[in-house]
Specification:
By secondary structure, this protein is an all-alpha fold. Helix content is 66%, strand content 0%. The protein has 14 helices and no strands.
């Protein structure tokens, strides 16, 4: 049975055009082709990425946060209450009106006190400013080095300037060492993001992020096995270019360099719209939809690869809306965070506690300002 499943999974018509077999992609005469077994290296690479990230955040990002006086906001903790804690952990983080009334009866607390308890409890679950800063710093550094490496790997290749060269001789295109390491680097990074989703900052677009990471890894894996490597490297470089500026703007914003962060975000918005809404659909997807038909007849892999690219494009439209909202705030008010992140809730329940909280948050001088989110 396993043999039957394996034969079906590796059926040549799923992965390769007609008149091309796996035997045609065996190493010979100095030509080296990508192999599915090489993808196993992505897992140890992901684990190495997690280790490098841990060391980076602890020994580089955290000290930098101290230099810039980036500190977590002082929060009022929720008073111990087994009834409310059990409801919070097992049922809902935001109780309905009826549930609040029921909880008031069980705890003998007034409604406002119960509501304040839930606000404080939710705030306790939200990551602090330093954690956001460290995560953004790590992603900014990775995207920068990945993009630089991608440019160095592509700048002297003919398909970087003429997209028709992407399909010249396909699929019998020899794999280059630079392509192997570029793929391994990117797959290791996105695999590490999936592994770290449980303890990373959870944003409003969490589900979209999961879909994006899975779609990216699926695309990279399929393009590697089917030898769509040339177009794969172009897609990665286009995506990394704008992400550098986004994470850089977050880092500067957390450091309270608001004017510089806003300027960088405006540049990022322009670059995102150019790369994700113009170059990606009208150059790269056009390259994968139209040009291959000049070389071979459509096959399953051709349709599968293009459908996955369209999934990414739909995510680009979704994020373009969020970015447009953030740009509006950047221009007409002040951009103070990420629209994908949950905002801190007011957890005070009396004038005395509000004043107490305000004194801790505002403080004096740069230290007080750094506590703001």
């Amino acid at each position: 049975m396993l043999q039957t499943v394996s034969e079906w999974l590796w059926w040549e018509r799923l992965w390769l055009p007609e008149n091309v077999s796996w035997s045609d992609l065996e190493d010979s005469e100095g030509r080296v082709y990508a192999k599915a077994s090489q993808l196993y290296a992505a897992l140890p690479c992901a684990l190495c990425m997690l280790l490098v990230r841990y060391l980076f955040e602890r020994y580089l990002a955290a000290p930098l946060a101290d230099v810039w006086e980036i500190r977590d906001r002082v929060r009022l903790t929720a008073a111990p209450n087994p009834v409310l804690e059990n409801y919070f952990c097992s049922q809902a983080r935001v109780p309905s009106k009826a549930d609040v009334t029921s909880l008031c009866k069980k705890t003998s607390w007034p409604e406002r006190r119960v509501q304040v308890w839930f606000r404080r409890r939710r705030n306790q679950e939200r990551p602090g400013l330093r954690k956001r800063f460290c995560e953004a710093s790590w992603r900014c550094v990775f995207y920068f080095f990945a993009f630089v490496y991608g440019v160095l790997a592509l700048y002297d290749k003919p398909w970087f300037y003429n997209l028709k060269e992407v399909w010249a001789g396909f699929p019998k295109q020899s794999m280059l060492p630079s392509q192997y390491w570029y793929y391994l680097l990117e797959m290791g990074f996105y695999s590490s993001l999936l592994l770290s989703l449980t303890f990373d900052v959870k944003r409003k677009d969490f589900k979209e992020q999961v879909i994006h990471h899975i779609a990216t890894l699926t695309l990279l894996s399929f393009s590697w096995i089917s030898n769509y490597i040339r177009i794969g490297t172009l897609v990665m470089a286009v995506h990394d270019s704008a992400d550098i500026l986004l994470e850089g703007a977050k880092v500067l914003n957390y450091a309270k360099w608001h004017r510089t962060a806003n300027a960088m975000f405006v540049v990022f918005t322009f670059l995102f719209m150019l790369t994700r809404l113009v170059i990606f659909p009208f150059w790269l997807i056009h390259c994968t939809w139209v040009y291959p038909l000049e070389e071979f007849a459509p096959f399953f892999g051709y349709y599968f690869f293009n459908v996955m690219l369209l999934v990414l494009q739909m995510l680009h439209f979704y994020w373009a809306v969020l970015i447009s909202r953030m740009l509006y705030k950047c221009i007409f008010s002040k951009l103070e965070g990420d629209d994908r992140s949950d905002a801190e809730e007011d957890d005070s329940d009396s004038p005395m506690e509000r004043n107490h909280k305000s004194s801790h948050i505002n403080g004096s001088g740069a230290r007080g300002r750094a506590n703001g989110h």
